[in-house]
Specification:
By secondary structure, the chain is of the alpha/beta class. The protein contains 14 helices and 14 strands. The strands form 3 sheets. It has a 7-stranded mixed sheet, with helices on both faces. A 5-stranded parallel sheet has the order 2-1-3-4-5, with helices on both faces. Strands 11-12 form a two-stranded antiparallel sheet. A hairpin with a 2-residue loop joins strand 11 and strand 12. The N terminus is likely disordered.
Length: about 400
């Protein structure tokens, strides 16, 4: 069974010093202690600390698995050595950590989580021709700038919105079109604002009337006014795009105020695809749907990974599985490149095809302008205390329940 053990910043820095000392050692000693330095950037303090910790957990699981299996074999069994950075939930700190990682000689960086952090960190990494693999950040600005060093394994919000709308239409049509009106609720940053703008433009084309778009800050301490506005508008659907804490507040407030729309259909929601929300607030979570990153429930390795994470006392979430997969992707590129050189790793990533080391419900991994064209979200729904995949049929392990019962 896989277990987790946190890698402290101090130990990561100590590891870097030890590796530097080896440069002056005899060649045979260096070969015996060969390492592949990989930067892991996550916001483990600040408003996004929970997400950052889960992302770090996924990366550590993959690193341990790779090292236990013999390391990077094309590099003589080089072990992956983590250089960890705390983005502190803001872009400026993320940039500072990239600068430090570059100075410490990492061959690539994985992570960032939030779109603003990924946007700034990947830009900083580009100055060093340092491959940056985005784990979650969904803003399409991240891969539309022409940066040759930036690769996003997961889908962006353009793809996710299209899939979400297609599946919402399918869901509503199959139920006899009970939903006609929508209220959009979103965090007011790069991720939420961009997604809400796109949804507001596209929903009317699918026959839905957007009654109002309600923005909220991150972090937010109270959702009473948002809930009261939803009550006054009385929409058939509430479509939230928020981080974990804000959606938990909203869902619990709606529950307490007995606001019961026909459906809560989230898009890229930080809580609806997180078992912590499901287990700690079962009533508020029940029936919530989400179009988001999720694992392939038919993949045995994915189920093993979930068990390992839960056995360590943590909640399984998309942060874990995406970072696990991204680290595996870097290792795959290093094997094909046969080198720890940044430029060669970048070339190998750009040439990726047939990568099978991940646990996602994706097609073939191919990067076009830095975006994995094989990446796709799934629709999930909280049913009986579990997060079930309801679309697409290829990966589904449950049927959708819609409209919600009063």
């Amino acid at each position: 069974m896989i277990t987790t053990s946190p890698i402290s910043r101090r130990s990561a820095l100590a590891g870097g010093v030890a590796s530097a000392a080896l440069l002056g050692a005899p060649a045979i000693l260096r070969a015996q202690g060969a390492v592949f330095k990989l930067g892991i950037l996550q916001p483990v303090t600040g408003a996004l600390a929970q997400d950052g910790d889960l992302g770090r957990t996924g990366a550590e699981l993959a690193i341990r698995e790779i090292n236990d299996a013999g390391g990077i074999k094309a590099l003589g069994g080089a072990k992956i050595e983590t250089v960890f950075g705390d983005a502190r939930s803001n872009p400026e700190a993320g940039t500072q950590e990239v600068e430090r990682m570059a100075a410490e000689g990492v061959s690539a960086i994985v992570g960032g989580f939030a779109s603003p952090i990924c946007l700034a960190a990947s830009q900083a990494a580009s100055r060093y021709d340092l491959p940056y693999i985005v784990d979650v950040g969904v803003s399409d600005q991240i891969v539309s700038r022409g940066l040759k060093n930036t690769f996003r394994f997961a889908p962006g919000f353009g793809t996710v919105t299209t899939v979400a709308l297609d599946n919402l239409s399918k869901l509503n049509d199959a139920a006899g079109k009970p939903a006609k009106t929508v209220v959009l609720v979103h965090e007011d940053g790069l991720f939420g604002s961009g997604l809400a703008k796109l949804m507001a433009s596209e929903l009317p084309k699918r026959g839905f009337e957007v009654l109002e778009t309600i923005a909220h800050p991150t972090p937010a301490r109270d959702m009473s006014n948002v809930a009261l506005r939803i009550r006054a508008l009385n929409p058939d659907l509430v479509i939230p795009s928020s981080y974990y804490g804000e959606f938990v507040l909203l869902a619990r407030t709606m529950q307490q105020q007995r606001i019961r729309p026909k459906g809560v259909y989230a898009v890229l929601n930080g809580a609806a695809s997180n078992f912590r929300f499901v287990k700690e607030f079962a009533e508020a979570a029940s029936g919530v749907m989400d179009c988001n990153h999720w694992y392939d429930p038919t993949n045995p390795r994915a189920l093993e990974l979930r068990k390992a994470v839960e056995a360590s006392g943590k909640f399984f979430s998309y942060n874990v599985l995406l970072n696990y997969s991204c680290v595996k992707l870097v290792a795959d590129a290093a094997e094909r490149a046969g080198s720890a050189d940044r430029a060669k790793i970048g070339e190998a990533l750009a040439a990726t095809s047939g990568f099978k080391g991940h646990i996602m419900p994706y097609g073939e991994t191919r990067f076009v302008n830095g975006q994995n064209t094989g990446a796709a979200p799934v629709n999930t729904q909280v049913q009986n205390g579990e997060i079930k995949v309801i679309f697409p049929d290829t990966f589904a392990d449950a049927k959708p329940l819609f409209p919600a019962k009063a």
